[in-house]
Structures are given as C-alpha cells and as structure tokens.
Amino acid sequence: MLTRILNLIFGSKNDREIKALRPVVEQINSLEPSLTPLSDHALTDKTQEFRKRLEKGEPLDDLLPEAFAVCREASRRKLNMRHFDVQLLGGMILHRGRIAEMKTGEGKTLVATLPLYLNALTGHGAHLVTVNDYLAKRDAQWMGALYHFLGLSVGVIQHDASFLYDPTYDAADKRLQYLRPCTRSEAYRADITYGTNNEFGFDYLRDNLIVNDIRQCVQRELNFAIVDEVDSILIDEARTPLIISGPTEDSTDLYYRINAIIPQLKPEQDYTIEEKTKTASLTEEGNARVEKLLGVENLYDLSNMTLVHHVIKALQAHSLYKRDVDYVVKDGEVIIVDEFTGRLMPGRRWSDGLHQAVEAKEGVKIANENQTLASVTFQNYFRMYKKLAGMTGTADTEASEFAKIYNLDVNVIPTNRPNIRKDYADVVYRTEREKFNAIVEEIKDCHQHGQPVLVGTISIEKSERLSGMLSRQGVKHHVLNAKYHEKEAEIIAQAGRKSAVTIATNMAGRGTDILLGGNPDFLFKRLLYQEEGIPEERRLAVFEEIKADCEKNKQEVVAAGGLHILGTERHESRRIDNQLRGRAGRQGDPGSSRFYLSLEDDLMRIFASERVSNLMLKLGMEEGVPIEHGMVTRAIENAQKKVEAHNFEIRKQLLEYDDVMNKQREVVYQHRRAILTGENLTDEIMGMMDSVVTSFVQACCPEEQYQEEWDYAALAESMHGQFGVDLAHGHPGGIEGLKDLGRDALVEELQQAVRQAYRRKEEEIGPDIMRQLEKIVLLQVIDHHWKDHLLGMDQLRDGIGLRGYGQKDPLIEYKREGFDMFSGMMERIKSDTLERLFKIQAVRQEAAPSPPPQMPPRLSLNRGEEPAASKTVKHQYDKVGRNDPCPCGSGKKFKKCHGA
C-alpha cells in the first residue's frame, strides 16, 4: 500500500527513467529542421562522418541524438515511416542494453533500426535475433532499404541459406526479393545481421566443434544484439539447451521390446505419474510385473539399470506426452511441438531416449539414440555479447528473472495512443464440453454482427476440435497451427477483417500486425502472386483500390467493436495470456478480450481445482451456468504464479549446472581457437612435454620418499611408452646415470632428452609437415576427449541428485567432481597428443590434398571431413583401437585407413 501511495506522488521507477530521457527526445526533434533540406547524398554521407568521429575517440553515446535523427529522416524518405517520440524512447532503451516493453502495434521492427544503426557504426557488427526464419527475412527485406540508403550492409542467416541485401538483385523467387545468396561468413561480416536464435547458437557451436581451419569460422566477435520477442527466446526456450549430437551404436530393438509391455501395465496400480513435473515411477507391484514380462530376476540389479531407464521413458511417452499436443506425426516422423508457440520444431529431438520411446509408441522408424558432441544454453550464449538488449510486448511480469539471469532491466514504454481495449472477467464452466459450447455460441454471435474474432488455443488438438465444431455450425474460419511461417503471417494479417474468425495455437503469428479492416500490403502481394500479368502502370491503382476497400472494412469493424480476443484456456504463464490479449487494441483501436475456462482444463485440474471447485459448490453452480467472480480469477492467477515460479526454478537450476560446463567450454573453445589461429604450436607442444615429464617424475620419484626408494624402472617404462625415449640405452650411463641426479636435475635432464627426440622426429618428417601435424593431431585429440567428457558430465548430472540423500549439496558435488573430470581430461589431451606425435612416421610418396571440409547442416549427425597433411603419414601407434578414428585426420576408422 505504501509503495502505491509513493508511486502516485513521485511516480514509479520506470516513470522516472522514461522522464529522464524526454530531453534527449527533444534534442533529436530539434535536429530535424536541419536534416530535412539535405540531399540524399549529403544525408548518406553522415554515416562516414560519424565513423570518422568514432575513430578519433568520440564516445558512441555522444553520437546518439544525431544518429537517431539521421536514421529517422532516412526512414521517412525510404520507408515513408517517421519514428514517433515513444519509438525514439524505445530506441534509447535498447541502446542502453535494456529490454523495452512495447505493446503490440507500436512498431518494434522500426524501433530496432535506431540502435542497430548507431551500434553498427563501430564496425563490430550488430545482430537482430528473431523467433523464426520468416521474420528474419521479412524484417531484413523491409528495413534493408533504410540501412542500404545509409551505407550499411545487411546480412540474413536462414536455416539452410544466407543472403546479403542487394536492391539491384532480381531473384527468381519473388519471396527473396533483393536478397542475394552469399556465404554464411559474408552474412556475419555485414554491418547488421538478421537471424534466428537457433541459427546464431548453432553457428557458435559449429565454429568451435567442426571447423579445422580458422577461415571456415563464420561468426566474428559477439558485439551487440537485440532480441525480438525476448521473453519467448530468453525465458520460454531457455529450458531447452542447443545440442549438436552424433549417433551412438546402441541398438533400437530394446525400445520396441519395452514398448510392447507398457499397455499391460495399469496406472496407479503398476505405476504413478506426476503431471506437474512430467515424471513417472513404478510401484512395487509394477516392478514385479515388469520383471515377469521382461524375464529378469531383479530389475534394479546393476546389469539391468538400462532396462529401468527405458521402462520409465516408455511410461512417460505413453502417459504424459500426447499426440497433437506435445508432438505430431508427419511423414513417418515424430516432430516436437513448441509448448509456448505451437510451432513445429523439425530437427529437434527429446534427449535421454524419450524421443525414441515416443517413436516406438507411434510405430514409426526409431532413430539411434544420440550422444552430445556440443551444447550451450541460450542463457550462456547470449550472455557472451558485449551488449544485449531485447524488445517484446510482455516482459514486465518476468522482470526479476531478466535482472537475475541476464542483468537486463525492463522499461515499459508508453503507447503512442491510449489503450481502450476492454478486458472482460474470466468465465468458468464446470466441464470442458460446456465451455466449448459457450465459445462456439460467442464466436457465432460476433461473426453474425461483423466483429472479427481471434481465438487462442493451447494445443493443436484443441484447435482442431474447435474447428470441427465451427464447421458443423457453418462458421467460416481459418486455423493456424504455425506449420508454415509465411502462410501463418498472411492469415494472421487478415484476422482483423469484418466477420473474420481465426484460430491460433499459442498465439502463432507473433510479429505480424493485425490491422482492422485487413492489411492492404499482404492483400496486394497475394494478388500479384495470383495474377502475374498485372502491368506496372496499373499496379499503383490496384493497390489504392485495395487500400480503400480495407479502410471501408475498418470502419465497419470499428463500429462492431474492433477485434475480439477469445482465449479457450488459461496458459500456465500469465505472460502468454497477455500476448494473446495484446493482439487487440493496437494504436488506440477498439477491441475486447475474454477467457473461457473449465474445471477440466490442465491448469485448473493440476494447480487450482480444489479451491475453485469448493468455491463453485458453495455458489451452487448448475450445469451450463458459468461463473464470473473475482475470487476465481485470483485463484487462477495464484495457480499461474506457482507454475511460473516452478518453471523459473527449472531454468535457474539448468543455468547453475550449465555454468559449470560453461567455464569448461570456454577453456576448451579458447584453446581450440588459439590452435586454429596459431602458426607455430611448437612452444605449446614443448610445454606439454615438460608438463608430462614433470608428472612422470612426481609419480615415480615422490618428494616424500628417499631417493633410494624412487622407482626408476617405472619411470623408464613411462618415458619409453609415451615418447619412445629409451633411458636404458639412449642415455649416457643408462638408468644408473640418473640415480646421481637430484629431483630438479632429473626433471631437467629428462625434459632435454624428450626435446631432442622431438627435434629428431621433426627432422625426419620435415618442419612444415610437422607444423601441420601438430595442428591436426591437437584438434583431433581435443575433439575426441571433449566429446567423451560431455558424455561423462551428462551421466554425472543424471545421478548427482541422489547425493542429496547423503546430506550433500548436489550442485557443489557436481562442481567438485566436474572439475576433477575436467582436470583429468586436460592431462589426457596432453598425453594422447604427444603419444600420437611421437609415433608418427612419414613415407615418401606424395598424396593429393583433401578437399576442405563442408559445413554440415544444423543438428548434423555426421562430422565434417578433416583436412589431411600434404604428405601421407603412416602410423605405428600400438595403442589405437581398430575402430578408433585414424590420427592422420582422414576422418576414417583406423582399420580402414592406409590398409591398417
């Protein structure tokens, strides 16, 4: 209460921060009269002028008023759009590295041009991160004219292609207008680069996993990024890390075998499920039944632990993962449905055998289980940027998480025009059937008097159910399951036309404006696509006709009450509900919203059913009669807050554990990058030799023992096995000659012997070839051990929670054991690298150089070929297994390489 009173008197913190920026807005506005008379050429020259001032040391912040004014003037000329004052405020918030919350229809796409232009002046690049390929391409094409006019280059990163904005390029595919194909590295070297969060993240992983030549790295330094729909990317998708994986050799037969017994198990009797956490567990009766069905004596014997894991995953697949809700089956594949957007995610797979269990359940071909080769969370990837900003319509409810995880403050930007949307209280029914009947009646009523309706559902299954009911009632409508982003945008753009009914799963179509009366630009493009013969001189007149029709349609829609938002269920996050509501009432338009609920909805059933049920019984609720009550609404909001807190804990825990991996990842990736950029790695190799020799002496000649007790035979054996150095015959005085040396002198003597052996190896093979081999072998050994280390860390993570039963903090134990494993890996990298280098011998015939490795697709299951040395090398490496990768870098197994 006290906080509210103080806010009324002094204004909130957000109000004060926005007020402090108003004078800068006035300064930008004051520059407009001096820029308007300038020629296009003179306005373009401002970019070079700004860059020269930066080179002389002028701070970037000092350029902000002039750069924003120039960008606004260029936008007015090239896009026929002039930034509002509130958009200038949004641009300043983004430049400061904060999140700008701006309501739907406030022009976030245009707002981003201001900070992108300013930060691109430094020459270090600026990224605009979107939620899908369509929006990245659309925004780059749309805003590209502005950037090109100001002398900046624009790149676009897509899932399977890369482009540069070029207004002179005439693409055969009109959807790629002005986008010229280019290499991925060219797109990243552009001043401004548009792309999706997945592509930026996967390119980072590929640059540090697959690339074996620095020239093949596509990304440059991570300088400045604006994340569009920042809540969707940094909150909703942050629970799932990006993973590049490769197939293991495990058989898939076990999945079919386990799947066959699951229908014979009875819920509650043989197993229990926990819907809140999506977990399943066997009861004692279930254990006995599974043992009998599988023909094993003890399911929890160490030799059967794999069976337990598979049974649990199969139970989850059958009981908790529903078709057309959590996934769809398309073309014989199980494709995950994004729980927050309703979009399909081809190429993504659940880990830990769950995806294979779902494939077995649906009777489709089971792909091999994968082993992680590289992974990173969105939290840790985006925290690598020197400066990060974001924009969305709904961030304030998650402001504390943005501050804690990303150190990002949220500023709410005022709307250009007052919001007059009416948000009605929730309506709650006893059963889902009653609820859907009421929804259909309301849609029919709106449809009949010309009011457009946007219906939000939480799953594909519910969308199709509602669609069937509307079809039986003869109501014409569109269904959006977000399978095709471009079609999705086209449909959602016309959701504001008179009597339109649009059903969207989890608000698919974010990023596309819903204009009352229809979007004339989309209608014009569709007409051009359908009727290619429209002459150039007639096109302007056709567009004006479409625009006039949309304006007339708008007046009728406004009279009917504007766009009506109808939610069929409350989402577990209030923010997702607010996103749906925010589609109505853009730029001062009229609109309304209402949510329909039932006691059978997942959120109500799992989190709020008892309190709400008791309340409804007290009020004497009858079948078919809804309830609208503030207590019900508060109970629902409390349930949503519980789920939000639970999901935050999941994301926080994921980040805490990934922070351990992130420190290790940074060390390995920095080491790998240093190898790629280093011309001469001899000093590093020599350092490895000294380190390994020192460790041998420490093991065989410990300080706490008398010199007479030192194990010289073991030391000689280690030196010969690792370096091929024979102390018995190759050293003056043999092993006996070493016994007169003190510990430090012994270390120095052995280090010199190893260095001399390496120089002889270098003379035998040739210095140039040796330099190549050092790089190839180092990269190969690092990649091999890092992959094994990731598998070990995954297994450690799976079981670390059990330490809690021993009164130990699992996270601290994970950090401690993870550090020990990492230290051991680094020692093995040194040892294996030296062993391979010392046991390589050259033969004299020449070999044709291998072609450069090709960049594999995202989530590739196959590694790229590695470049071979310019001379063929033969291995006399007695410890390499026949199925291990050949150390020469050919990418083949050892048994198939050189006839081994």
Automatic annotation (TrEMBL):
Residue span(s) of domain Helicase C-terminal: 435-633
Keywords (A to Z) from UniProt: ATP-binding, Cell inner membrane, Cell membrane, Cytoplasm, Membrane, Metal-binding, Nucleotide-binding, Protein transport, Translocase, Translocation, Transport, Zinc
Cellular localisation: Cell membrane; Cytoplasm
Keyword Transmembrane helix: no
Claim: Protease is one of the keywords in the record: no
Cofactor dependence: Zn(2+)
Domain named Helicase ATP-binding: residues: 89-266
Record EC number: 7.4.2.8
Pfam families per UniProt: P-loop_SecA, SEC-C, SecA_DEAD, SecA_PP_bind, SecA_SW
GO molecular function: ATP binding; metal ion binding; protein-exporting ATPase activity
Amino acids binding ATP: Q87, G105, E106, G107, K108, T109, D513
Domain SecA family profile: 3-628
UniProt cross-references to CDD domains, sorted A to Z: DEXDc_SecA (cd17928), SF2_C_secA (cd18803)
Membrane topology: Peripheral membrane protein
Tree of life domain: Bacteria
UniProt-annotated stretches for the region Disordered: 844-890
InterPro entries hit by this protein: Helicase_ATP-bd, Helicase_C-like, P-loop_NTPase, SEC_C_motif, SecA, SecA_CS, SecA_DEAD, SecA_motor_DEAD
Reactions performed catalytically: ATP + H2O + cellular proteinSide 1 = ADP + phosphate + cellular proteinSide 2
A Gene Ontology BP annotation from the UniProt entry: protein targeting
Gene Ontology CC terms: cell envelope Sec protein transport complex; cytosol; plasma membrane
Role played: Part of the Sec protein translocase complex. Interacts with the SecYEG preprotein conducting channel. Has a central role in coupling the hydrolysis of ATP to the transfer of proteins into and across the cell membrane, serving as an ATP-driven molecular motor driving the stepwise translocation of polypeptide chains across the membrane.
Subunit structure: Monomer and homodimer. Part of the essential Sec protein translocation apparatus which comprises SecA, SecYEG and auxiliary proteins SecDF. Other proteins may also be involved.
Similarity-based family: Belongs to the SecA family.
Record-linked HAMAP family: SecA (MF_01382)
PANTHER family listed in its UniProt record: CHLOROPLAST PROTEIN-TRANSPORTING ATPASE, SECA INNER MEMBRANE COMPONENT OF SEC PROTEIN SECRETION SYSTEM
Protein name per UniProt: Protein translocase subunit SecA
Species for this entry: Nitrospira tepida
